[in-house]
Amino acid sequence: MHPYIGWAGDRSAGAVLVFARESRAAKPVAFGLLMGWFDVEYTDVRVKRLRDHTDWLMTHARPRMITAGLAHGTDEVPSCCDCHRWHGPLDADNRCSECAQQQITEAA
User: Fold this and answer.
1) What are the CA-CA distances from residue 54 to residues 58, 61, 87, 88, 106 (Å)?
2) In angstroms, rounded to a whole number, what is the distance separating the alpha carbons of residues 38 and 62?
3) Is 106's pLDDT higher than 80?
4) SS3 string of 47-96?
5) Cβ–Cβ contacts within 10 Å for residue 102, how many?
6) pTM of the predicted model, to two decimals?
7) How many C-beta atoms lie closer than 10 Å to residue 26's C-beta?
């Protein structure tokens, strides 16, 4: 199983995290989650395999579903308090590494 990001239109408008063996299995899961947010057509949904921070992303998967090899997803991933993205682990202040570094740079 691999982590995928799923979105329709502009990724910054919202995205879901999907766990699947391949993109063909990830897209229907992403569609099911996204159609609750938007008036979206299946053909508008895109998925992309995430290759950075996979260990952290996999902590958001459901263990039983992973063990059974079943594709599934979530729209409840902790996101950065500054940029609102969930592309990697957060620090103690709920900031991603990029925003935390920017905070340090601005303070200096």
Assistant:
1) 6, 11, 10, 9, 29
2) 25
3) no
4) EEECCCCHHHHHCCCCHHHHHHCCCEEECCCCCCCCCCCCCCCCCCCCCC
5) 14
6) 0.88
7) 28
Give the separation between CA 106 and CA 82, rounded to whole angstroms. 14
Q: Which residue has the higher pLDDT, 86 or 87?
A: 86
- Of 24, 22, 29, 16, nearest to 75 by C-alpha is 16
CA dist., res. 83 & res. 69, Å (int): 32
Contact (Cβ atoms closer than 8 angstroms) between residue 20 and residue 26 = yes
Do residues 73 and 19 make contact, with C-beta atoms less than 8 angstroms apart? yes
Mean pLDDT of the chain: 91
Q: Which residues pair with 7 in a beta bridge?
A: 46
Q: Per-residue DSSP letters for 94-105?
A: S--HHHHHHHHH
| pLDDT tens column, 31-42 | 999 998 878 899
